[in-house]
Amino acid sequence: SSPSVPIPSPGSPALPPCGSPLLERKGKEPEREKLPPIVSAGAGATAGLDRGAKGQISTFSSFISAVSPKKEAAENRSSPAHLVFPNIKNVRDQPPISLDVRQKQRISMDASSSEVKAPVLPECILPIQTKTMKDFQEDVEKVKSSGDWKAVHDFYLTTFDSFPELNAAFKKDATASFNTIEDSGINTKFVNAVYDTLINTPQDIQKTNPQFNNTSTYVIYAHLLRQIATLVEADHHFLVHWFKKLSQKRFKQLVERLLQFISLRLFPAKPEEFPPITKCSWWIPSAAKVLALLNTANNLVHPPLILYTDFYNSTLDHIDLMEEYHTWQNFGNSHRFSFCQYPFVISIAAKKIIIQRDSEQQMINIARQSLVDKVSRRQRPDMNMLFLNMKVRRTHLVSDSLDELTRKRADLKKKLKVTFVGEAGLDMGGLTKEWFLLLIRQIFHPDYGMFTYHKDSHCHWFSSFKCDNYSEFRLVGILMGLAVYNSITLDIRFPPCCYKKLLSPPIIPSDQNIPVGICSVTVDDLCQIMPELAHGLSELLSHEGNVEEDFYSTFQVFQEEFGIIKSYNLKPGGDKISVTNQNRKEYVQLYTDFLLNKSIYKQFAAFYYGFHSVCASNALMLLRPEEVEILVCGSPDLDMYALQRSTQYDGYAKTDLTIKYFWDVVLGFPLDLQKKLLHFTTGSDRVPVGGMADLNFKISKNETSTNWLPVAHTCFNQLCLPPYKSKKDLKQKLIIGISNSEGFGLE
């Protein structure tokens, strides 16, 4: 038997394990009538190229020849060569390949049960393939000296003429039917050799055996993708497991080719090479579904074959993302296609735009409602009613912030404005950044006791100490939510599993009895926080001796709380159950779950509800945990050369001597001083999504005495620099300025 692969539905894009859409609903055949007819040479082939179809076996060459006339006819109808961008909206109006239902919760659906076996092919007489991989490679070597491609050409013509020939050539046992996810039964080395050789063959060979690396073959490629996308669910189950066994190079080639196919269909350089967009609206949904299979396969491998960012399609940054989002929101239960059904292809920069605009719209709606309420009560409108106004004292930062946020809970989705009592600064964004920075620094201090800093992993984790009030954990969640909502990056060092818990589930459940912030955790997750303990548990799992005698452990663990050692049973009667070779996996799983879920449940639940009280949005369903971390924290990696390239100047030119001095000094700074400079000028030492270019950093000329220190306007990411006459003087003044930068005032 084989394990089932959970392939979620397109409507639940953030579903575990990988957020990949399910291509078909379980137990149902694809709704093929919604697509163009499947081309087949078999007169009685009612199911086209489906595996297991009865009737005459179609030939691959006849499949290509049947599709090609349609392609040529489409080309003849196309307009002259000029750059024409398709009306993307028309694509959305076409029905997708199958009935997709968007779901608000992450519901994992099994692709097939462990007993599923592939349908048995009808018996047919298979040709005898006498040429082996060695014979083929020898023929290729002979070409180098003779220049005669006839033997190689004949091999391609014969092998790819029909499916029986393909089976005879590439199946390890041409007569055997496969029924395992572990082995596809294909001689992959031979297939790869034939494929790689094809790249260097003459055009007449490539024409009959297209590799789909240029637009002239995209009509055939689209039909091939459609065949894969509309396979039954059991076949997808096998494909996913076979895909994950590909080499990294082959796997990445498949992904890149599919992404290129989508990009060129959206924005063709030569529109005449494609059929009209209204005739091939199923192309992109087909490609997206095949990408979903590859994405699922990638996430089943640890570590993944390629990075999740390799599935991003940057072309989508240039389409109407909000239309995509609204289509997904408003027509989720209909047949309309949206890229939001397949969020793994949307870049983090594009997702940030969706979240920002969704947040802005919510802010506008809340502010409008406040204004309407005032007018309806015949009260004079006040501009302050449009903002979440925070008035805090630096000396009582945490308590004042908690009081303000508690009193103004209804205003959390308004634009944030901060005022420090006793200071004259006006908040155009800079004071808000300062408030976040100081508050986070104070809350996460070890003396505060809310979080424990683990030196080995350089991250914070929730303290398991029990208390009567968890409101401050809720405050931290609200802070993170406000940061995302107001596009502020925070210097918070949580492990990746924290963000996985934060999206469990991504939408607050309507039933308050449903636990939140609980997710499946492993020793790998524990290693991100407590690497030494995780290493010990891994040794327990791999120990070859007698675990019970050598470790002498029970299903009971101990924790220190305020100097008192407390014991906890991992299961009922755990103190009397010894850990043995037979139950050690259960022990490790229960211990890991206790540390990362159960022991901190109340703390994390308060944190979860705080975050979602601000960021309650379906847009969160588009995000992976890693992407939430980037939105909250930005990137700690500073690229000052990228900042130099994107910097704008006011009163200076980049060739001026003062500017040359500045960059010589800054590029020579150690990392800590570079971070101080970034914090001095922007209010944060983290790099936002999109990189340094998104900072819109500006250096302005300050026509004052060179005895003055530099001045920064963090609201506008602007540095005002006097025209210092020497590099030494500039360096000295700059270091003094960035090292003493706390506090705000009005000029």
Low-confidence stretches: 1-65, 67-118
Query: Strands of the biggest beta sheet: in what spatial order?
Result: 7-8-10-9
Quickly count the helices: 27
Question: N- to C-terminal separation?
Answer: 75 Å
Q: What is the number of beta strands?
A: 10
The figure for the number of domains is 4
Percent helix, as a range, is 40-55%
Q: How much is the radius of gyration in Å?
A: 31 Å
Average pLDDT across residues?
Answer: 79
Note the overall shape. Answer: globular
The largest sheet is: 4 strands, mixed
Q: What is the beta-strand fraction?
A: 5-15%
Task: Indicate the structural class.
Answer: alpha/beta
InterPro entries: E3A/B/C-like, HECT_dom, Hect_E3_ubiquitin_ligase
Region (Disordered): 1-50
Domain HECT: 408-747
Catalytic activity: S-ubiquitinyl-[E2 ubiquitin-conjugating enzyme]-L-cysteine + [acceptor protein]-L-lysine = [E2 ubiquitin-conjugating enzyme]-L-cysteine + N(6)-ubiquitinyl-[acceptor protein]-L-lysine
Please tell me about this protein's structure.
- The chain is an alpha/beta fold.
- The protein has four domains: 223 residues, no CATH class; 190 residues, Hect, E3 ligase catalytic domain fold (Alpha-Beta Complex); 74 residues, Hect, E3 ligase catalytic domain (2-Layer Sandwich); 100 residues, Hect, E3 ligase catalytic fold.
- The protein is built from 27 helices and ten strands.
- The chain has a four-stranded mixed sheet, with helices on one face. The chain has a two-stranded parallel sheet with strand order 1-2. Strands 3-4 form a two-stranded antiparallel sheet.
- Strand 3 and strand 4 form a beta hairpin.
- The longest helix is centred in the middle third of the chain and has 29 residues.
- One of its GO terms (biological process) is protein polyubiquitination.
- Keywords: Phosphoprotein, Transferase, Ubl conjugation pathway.
